[in-house]
Amino acid sequence: MKLHSIIRRSDMLKCMLCHNAPCSTACPHGVEPEKILRHIWFNNEDYAAAGLAESNPCADCPAPCQQACLRPGEVPIQELITRLHEDVAPYLDIPQPCDESSLQTDLCGIPLENPFLLSSSVVASTYDMCARAFEAGWAGASFKTICTLDIHEASPRFASINGADGSMIGFKNI
Q1: DSSP helix, strand, coil percent of the chain (3-state; round to 5)
Q2: What pLDDT does 67 receive?
Q3: Residues linked to residue 160 through DSSP beta bridges, in sequence order
Q4: Pairing state of beta strands 168-173 and 158-162?
Q5: What are the two backbone dihedrals, phi and then psi, of residue 76, each rounded to the nearest 5 degrees?
Q6: Are 84 and 36 in contact (CB under 8 A)?
Q7: What's the pLDDT at 81?
Q8: What pLDDT score does 95 carry?
């Protein structure tokens, strides 16, 4: 396990983190740079490196992914994947699991492929937010209100309770 990241966001600052990215469709080796770059962006380079093949597919590749990018030549996709392969993967403690069935669970008789559910909150208040969660692999979403009315959320959601001298003595969640 590493104590610090080897690859930083600044190494890929020009990446637009596209959905259905052209870099992924252009890769002749089936590597999905879109997912790898997203893992790096969210400081999860270990998982990105664990998903790579034994041999570096970018080693002798002409890098069509970089030319297909919405910012051609500005995102060093090939270099980032090579650095993951050479500088991160050899130091991983735990390999990526081949069988994820151990994540399956049962909630009140409802089978779930994993224990990750969106809560009944603002994060599950629109179709787009729920769709993004399901695309990321979440197993479900919880709702308290389903209607055709336009829901107006309380804002701000948090407030402080102040004492007589003006100092904060409490915190409330609306």
Answers
A1: 35, 10, 55
A2: 93
A3: 171
A4: antiparallel
A5: -80, 65
A6: yes
A7: 94
A8: 61
- Mean pLDDT for each consecutive 10-residue tract of the chain (174 residues)? 68 87 94 90 83 89 94 92 91 70 83 86 80 83 77 72 85 74
Maximal CA-CA distance, the chain: 70
User: CA 102 to CA 121: how far, in whole Å?
Assistant: 28
CA angle at residue 59 from 46 to 45, to 5 degrees? 10
Sign of CA dihedral 142, 148, 152, 154: negative
List 129's β-bridge partners, or say none. Answer: none
Nearest-CA neighbor of 77 among 1, 14, 153? 14
3-class secondary-structure state, position 113: coil
Sequence-separated (6 or more) residues with CB below 8 Å from residue 36: 48, 51, 80, 81, 84
Please report the pLDDT score of residue 147 as a whole number: 74
**Other Cβ atoms within 10 Å of 16 Cβ, number:** 12
Phi/psi of residue 162, nearest 5 degrees: -100, 145
Question: Taking a C-beta distance cutoff of 8 angstroms, is the pair 99, 54 a contact?
Answer: no
